Amino acid sequence: MLAELTQWLLNLVRSIFAALWDFVTDVVISILELIINAFVGLVSLIPVPDWLSNGLASAWSGMDSGVLYVVTQCGVPAALAIIGGGYAFRLARKFFTLFQW
What are phi and psi of 54, to 5 degrees? Predict the structure, then answer.
C-alpha cells in the first residue's frame, strides 16, 4: 500500500515537471515567434527603390537591339538568374540559421 502511494506521488511529480517543462518551452517558442514577427514587420517597412521595382526590364529596354541580341545569345539573363538564385539561397540560409552560418 505504501509502495503504491509513493509510486503514485512519484508519477504525479514527474507529470508536474513534464507539464512545467512543456510550458517553459511553449513560452520560449512564443517569445521567439514574437521577435521573428517583429523583425519581419520591420523588414517589410523598408521601401523598395524605384530602380529595383522596375527590375531588369528597364535596363533591357534601354539597350540597342543589336547589343540586346548579343547579350541574350551570350546567356547574360540566365547567368543573372543563377546569380540571383544563389544570392537568395544564401540570404535564406542566413535567416534560417539566425546569422550564425
Answer: -80, -20
Q: Domain range spanning residue 82?
A: 64-101
Record the cell numbers describing residue 55, joined without a space: 527590375
Q: Tell me the C-alpha distance between 88 and 84, whole Å.
A: 6
Residues near 91 by beta carbon (within 8 Å), at least 6 away in sequence = none
The answer on 39 and 5 residing in a single domain is yes
Can you give the pTM of this predicted structure? 0.47
CA-based torsion, 29, 35, 41, 47: positive or negative = negative
Model confidence over 76-95: pLDDT tens digits? 889 988 999 999 999 888 88
